[in-house]
Amino acid sequence: MSVFTGWRAALRIARRDAMRSKGRSALVVAMIAVPVLGVTALDVTYRSVTPTTAEQLTASMGSADALFSDEGIGPILQLPDAERYEQVDENAPVDEDGPSIDVATTFPKGSRAISVQSVPAGITTGYGIATTEIYEFRTSDPLARGKIDLVRGAFPRSKDQVAATEPFLKSTGLHVGSTTTVRNFGKKYTITGVVEQPDQLNAEALYADPGAVIAPWQARADHDKKVLPPNVGSKTWLVKGPEGVGVTWPDVMAANKSGVLVKSRQVVLDPPPDSEIPLARKGVEAYPESSEVSAALVTVVVMAILEIVLLAGPAFAVGARRSRRQLGLLGTCGGDRRHVRAVVLGGGLVLGGVGAAAGVGVGLAATAVFRPMIEEWAGNRFVSISLNPMELLVIAVIGLITGLLAAFAPAIVASRQSVLESLTGRRGVRRSSRVLPVLGACVLAIGCAVAVYGGTDGNSTLVAAGSVTAELGLLACIPVIVGFLGRLGSRLPLSPRLALRDAARNRGRTAPAVAAVMAAVAGSVAIATYMSSATAEAEYNYVPSLNEGTVVISAFDEKSAVRLPQARAAVERNMAVTGGHADFRHAWAGSDCNVYGDAENECGSVELVKPAGKAASCPLTGKGAKELAARLTADEHKKLMRSPACLVGIMSTGVFNAGEHGIVVADEAMLSTYVKLDDPAAAKALAAGTPVLLNPVFAKNGEVTIKAVHAYSDKDKQGRKLHPGKARTATDRLKVYVAPEKYAATPGINMILPRRTAERIGLRTQVSGSVYAVAHPPTSAEEQRTYGAIEQAGGGIWTQSESGSGGRIDNSMLLILTLFAGMVTLGAAAITTGLAKADAEADLNTLSAVGAPPGVRRKLSGFQCVVVALTGVVLGTLAGLVPAVALRMVDLRQALQMMRMEPTESAYTPIVLPWTTLGLLVVGVPLLAGLLASALTRSRLALARRAG
């Protein structure tokens, strides 16, 4: 019999065996298909979301041939992709106020063009008032297709119509047919349709035809001085070249002579040789495109294959155990070990092929079905679903090979069983290897050492290699760990004791399932830990403009300050205010710089003077800072950066119209509402006229020095009349109440000065605004309602709130990671339970024979699941911390390098564990696995056939 004939018979037996055991076959197919599905969907999504060069050009210039823009720096040289350019004469002065170029004169003859220009504007919404970007762009022109597409409704056709993006309509409460008013000059527009930018689906904007907004706005400003002129952006042109010619490289160079930058579709896709590019001849090169394969990606792929093998391997072992009588009959008919191995491997080939094909097919279908959701998540449209047949074939082949690898170990085990053992159902006793655990421990130690070294050396490839090596070493140690667990059950009740001993006695099926759980959980824990740590770092480095949970309203000037009561009512009516408000006043000396500060030395100033000496100076600035930074650890640098002396240069000021000095005139309500300082002594000090100092670096012996320069502008007629002489400088020392050091990080305030004390030292004050504590940051709708109410009352007042760092962790991503690890854990536990039931029929019969109640069978299955799930989750958590910690060490090294180059750069690189994710994995998933196993296991045994 030839080799091919033998394999045909083996594959036929494997196929029939798979059809007989449909449940087990479906489980194996699913274990192989799900990862293949995920990788296929990821590959197709990546290829589809990542635009080609041609697609990028279409997104930027629509169906035009080129994009023209005036850079305003005179004649230029550029590279073909227009990403890099420079002046022809680098020493030539740039006349920013000079006349602009007539870009239309640089177009090739016979061209047609449309312009794009934007202007920010305040518009009325369904909730109140908001600001948005309005683009003057003829969206109905065929040249715009690909850059702007119509979703529903119609394009604007007249000067009083606009189109809007979907995110704009959602945030403003408007719809097609609604009217909105550009408040800057009072003109109404009707929204006729919804458009989208395929490469920026989240953009909030309005689109009008050229001349519909900017020209009438400018005309109104020219005739009404109360109307501010539009702050327009630079104008770009979408140009369609002569038919059949386009915009060539000579056309580009001709436009460059006039200072116009050109991105030509034809030139970018088919660039000229370097010899024809003047800028390239000067040695300027295009920005390189990164083509490196991420070490993390390689790690993920390797661990995914390992995980499939570990998951599907026990399932093939189940099949081999259940089919051992059939395999024994194969031996009685003259088959040898090669044929037994071929049958089991044939099962891997059949099921691996089905799983791979199903995974690729379902992955393609899933990508197509969920395409709109993926596009919304990615923020750009697919031009088409992009398929790379070679990549899909490789993915399918990997799935097929993985099926074979998963069946390899069960095939070896099955071929070593004697025919008598297979026919009678008895199992031989084999000693576990003593060499493997020792080797595994050594590999584990080496892997950890390599990962740590890679972290300290900043080499992410070594981190990935060390992490995979450490996990492989831990895999080799799992049989010993499982055996050790069997010794812990002596004092436990019957069911958990039997589960632990069964797991220890049958390590061949328990260890692979534990390893599979460990592999899945390790990846999820590593990613979740890294994400949590990076988020904590971003939140720490973020410098807030206001204290969290507060809203500030401020008046532009004295005239608008009279409308503060209406503004307070608007805030209290439309935002989630949690209490009263704290009022603050603007303080100044001489002429108010907010009014007369348009020229140097023509207004007064107030300064909070630092005491002399090193104690009041930040050591990370000035002379010797770099030498000091070179000796600091990250923790030492963090402590210095948060010291009061260094916080002076970090924390924002001016929020309360207080200028750079951070002196805010207010009463004790500011302490509780904004500063969050619950200190009766501080409140009593303010009530008595004593300032409260939040940053102690300004104090010396309990006193601060305030330096006021009383300078008066010639435009300040009243002030100049009262003080006709030269500027006067006054210095006052005031006793202060010094708050605890932690309040030095309060944004916007260094010291709270009582009004009567400010006026006593010669400062002038006027009411400026109020602060509110709110239950949550204002939503877009709340801000629009408040802004609308304030503008209706007369305007002149703006609101500020703290939105946070924007680096908060994406809970949906952590949820996906947790669900993935949980599903794999449940699957591995189910496989192990199925294998245990296949192996333990005799044990269960014995339990029934000695009088064990039927519920013991359920409890035993439940605890078997718990043992596998809990062991795998705990080991996976420990294994996942290795790459996470090592990668954070890489980040730490880079942060320290940056800090030593620029001492005020933060080097804080924390390692933060995602406790919620770990809690769900360590507690929730094993518990759920045990409950499901108990619920789905039959209490009574089925009738068994007597062997022999």
Question: Can you give a write-up of this model?
Answer:
The protein has 948 residues and is an alpha+beta fold. It is built from 33 helices and 23 strands. Helix 18 (507-541) runs antiparallel to helix 30 and helix 20 (564-574) runs antiparallel to helix 29 (780-792). Mean pLDDT is 82; it is low at 290-296.
The best one-word shape is globular
| Rg computed from alpha carbons, rounded to a whole number of angstroms | 37 Å
What structural category do the secondary elements indicate?
alpha+beta
Number of strands: 23
> How far do the termini sit from each other?
31 Å
Beta-strand proportion: 5-15%
Helix content: 40-55%
**For the report, how would you describe the main beta sheet?**
10 strands, mixed
State mean pLDDT (0 to 100 scale).
82
Count of alpha and pi helical runs? 33
Which spans have pLDDT < 50 for at least 5 consecutive residues? 290-296
Short description, anyone?
The protein has 948 residues and is α+β, with helices and mostly antiparallel strands. It contains 33 helices and 23 strands.
Topology of this protein?
Layout: H1 3-20, H2 22-49, H3 53-61, E1 66-70, E2 76-78, E3 85-87, E4 112-124, E5 129-137, E6 149-153, E7 161-165, H4 166-172, E8 179-182, E9 187-196, E10 205-208, H5 214-223, E11 236-240, H6 249-256, E12 260-264, H7 265-269, H8 278-281, H9 295-322, H10 324-332, H11 337-369, H12 371-378, H13 389-416, H14 419-424, H15 435-457, H16 460-486, H17 494-505, H18 507-541, E13 550-555, H19 558-561, H20 564-574, E14 577-588, H21 593-596, E15 605-609, H22 625-631, H23 634-641, H24 644-647, E16 663-666, H25 669-675, H26 680-687, E17 692-693, E18 703-710, H27 717-722, E19 728-735, E20 737-738, E21 751-753, H28 755-760, E22 764-774, H29 780-792, E23 797-801, H30 811-839, H31 841-849, H32 855-901, H33 915-936
Parallel strand pairs: 5-10, 7-9, 16-21, 17-20
Antiparallel strand pairs: 1-11, 1-12, 2-3, 4-5, 4-11, 6-9, 7-10, 8-9, 13-22, 13-23, 14-16, 14-22, 15-18, 17-21, 18-19
Helix pairs in contact: 1-11, 2-9, 2-11, 2-13, 9-13, 9-16, 9-18, 9-30, 11-13, 15-16, 15-32, 16-17, 16-18, 16-32, 17-18, 17-32, 18-30, 18-32, 20-29, 30-32, 30-33, 32-33
